[in-house]
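Let us work through a complete example step by step.
Step 1: write down the sequence.
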Amino acid sequence: MNARRLPGPPPGAASVITAAISSPTSAKTFRTLAPEEAARRITSGEPYVVRFRCPYEFPGRVRFADRIRASVTMRDNGNDIVILKSSQEELPLPTYHFARIVDDHLLRVTLVVRGEEWLSSTPVHLQLHTALGFEPPAYAHLAPLMKAEGASRRKPSKRKNPEASVDYYLSAGYPPAAVQHYLRGLANVRLMDVPTADALAATVRLDGMRPSGPLLDLPRLHSLSREFIASLTPGEPYAQLLAWAEEYDPELASVLARHERLALAAVAVGRPEGAPARKDPDRWAGPPRQIANVVRVALTGAARSPDLFAVARALGRDEVLRRLTAVAGRGGAAPRCGAGSSPGPGSSLGSGSGPGAPVPVPCEVTPAAGSGSRRGHPGPSARAS
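Step 2: predict the structure and record it as tokens.
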């Protein structure tokens, strides 16, 4: 890695490691102390630290290459930084700056990828490499994820923003493959608009990363999750949803296990074969547009669902009549479960019809008196169990 000092005041000392012995509370009192005197004081038991004597009396500016930010120019280091600090052990402890330079050299590291908070430390590290006679590695400084807050941006807080934690995405039910696709897209925007399988197989490139931090965009993650779920066979989302529910929602897992056929049919609703049964509602007698949402809520418990006629076919004639009758017996009260009880984006993403829209889930109905239904039968208007 080539780094060069820009024209400026000449260096005031040779670029070598110099034991600038000093007390832990003073910075430059003993900067020019003779080595013999320093050794005598250390032997006598005086507390001390070892500092790297900066090779420049008046630091100028330094320019170096960054694999993400191209050419970076910044103020050079002008401090005598501590490289060995006092400890209760027999030997002093190396500080991070010193230890990482030696460690990278011994491990033959050629590329250091780190957060941009370390960008300001690069001049110090370059000075240490030069003083030790080491070839410095290439550097790439990553920008952190950002969250929009009004007109400003800030780094997500682990305390205030649950989406800053991986556990949030697992517990919310996002498909792990879609989350990986999303994260790769944040790193390399070119991967955001390709199929998930292609995005996971592609190489994340440093030259495709941006020097400014990408924004967290959960609606985009919803979209990727919806597209990923739509690409699976009906059995795959059911198996993934069941595995998720067994860990995060045992009640839903029990319902899915007891009503596997209906759950599989519900998943398949988003992928109906052939043309919709009523592609042109105006050709039919009556006002279907005026009653479709009423029927939709009665059958699914939600104002939005996949194609209503596909839902009805999946439920079957008897179940459709039973649910409509149960709702009518309750005086038209809206059901309280169905698609609206979806546990998270991993099971039903998006709205409206099509792949990923909410689907009817098995329910247990507790009908009102006089409805003619018995407690314990599946239905749309009671809590899931």
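Step 3: interpret the result. Confidence is low (pLDDT under 50) at residues 5-19, 274-279, 334-385.
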